[in-house]
Amino acid sequence: MLIIMRLCCLLSRSLDLRSLEWSYLFLDSQTCQLLASWTTPAYLSLPSPRISSRKFEWKIQTPHPFDLRYPYSYPFLINHPDKCEGPRGAPFLLMLVMTRPQDVGVRQAIRQTWGNETLVPSVVVRRLFVLGLPPPLFDKELQALLEEEDREHGDLLQVGFLDTYRNLTLKVLMGLEWMAQHCPSAKYVLKVDSDVFLNPRFLLHQVLWPNGPSPPDFITGHINRNTNPVRRLHTKWYMPPELYSQSKYPDYCVGPGYVLSGSLALRILTTAQHVKAIYLEDVFVGLCLRLLGVKPTPAPPNTFLMFRRKYNHCAFQRLVLVHQFQHQELLKIWPDFLTSNAACPTV
Ligand SMILES: *[C@@H]1O[C@H](CO)[C@@H](O)[C@H](O)[C@H]1NC(C)=O
Ligand SMILES: *[C@@H]1O[C@H](CO)[C@@H](O)[C@H](O)[C@H]1NC(C)=O
Q1: Which interval of the chain is the signal sequence (predicted)?
Q2: What are the pLDDT digits (tens) for 164-182?
Q3: Which residues contact 194 (CB under 8 A, 6 or more apart)?
């Protein structure tokens, strides 16, 4: 495919066919530039001096490869509409855990550790793993496995689009849509990635307010302020100017884990219907917040750690989240983490 696309670029450039009627068969220069910069010599990525109206039309018709189709009614393929019902009423905390279809072992580790719904018995916690469609090569086998896993645990929420890093925003938005449809009275929503350590006790008791209503404008986590879009091609966070042209991002809570009040989650979802979705989900939530006039609330200092930290019993009792934590390590430290240790300084 790539080769064919490159060929189209080459042809359209060397034969200068772009002004002809059928030139729409060829790619526009921006796409070519992107392709060319992957491997080909620099002369191919020079911008073309000729601008035809054809090219303009093509640009309108062809979405950027990072473009997201939203709003769009993606189906829930595995669903649990009554997850939030129960004798104890709406959950205090709804955990939306982002995982990939193939991460079966990661989900199992999370269920046995921080994703355990009954870890803090005084509050109602509900957990759902949000995932998309498996990669095409093994999709049949994986899909059957997923359905089996869900029969056993009843905690998968599968949405009908390809599960890729660049589609993460869709996963978060569809998690919020599920919440709006089936769990609108949840007091708080936690968006969390699967490569983290999480301390639900500290989150519930020191960061949230278990005995009162949730503040309507509350969102907290590790806040990034005044950051610039990455404009270097081929980097993980590259943001094409065509998709986001401003020179600064709004303040936002960083993706690995943030928690917000249920009412704010619903307002973000409403706002998201009118904002162009970008693939950086945390920045996108920040854009919605800015439109809503809501500022993220700073968390207690050093409680949302964005980089790996070696496990330490006492230190981990007094934080919410550590990013870049592998599930094997999570399983290893968890029994120790749960033991009480009188030698730790009191919280
Ligand atoms: C969840 O936590 C409760 C209370 O600590 C415990 O009894 C239960 O075995 C745990 N469940 C899992 C799946 O680990
Ligand atoms: C997102 O999902 C759609 C629908 O499955 C797919 O066509 C598209 O390639 C995905 N986008 C990215 C950037 O991965």
Answers
A1: 1-19
A2: 999 999 999 999 999 999 9
A3: 97, 98, 99, 103, 106, 107, 110, 129, 327
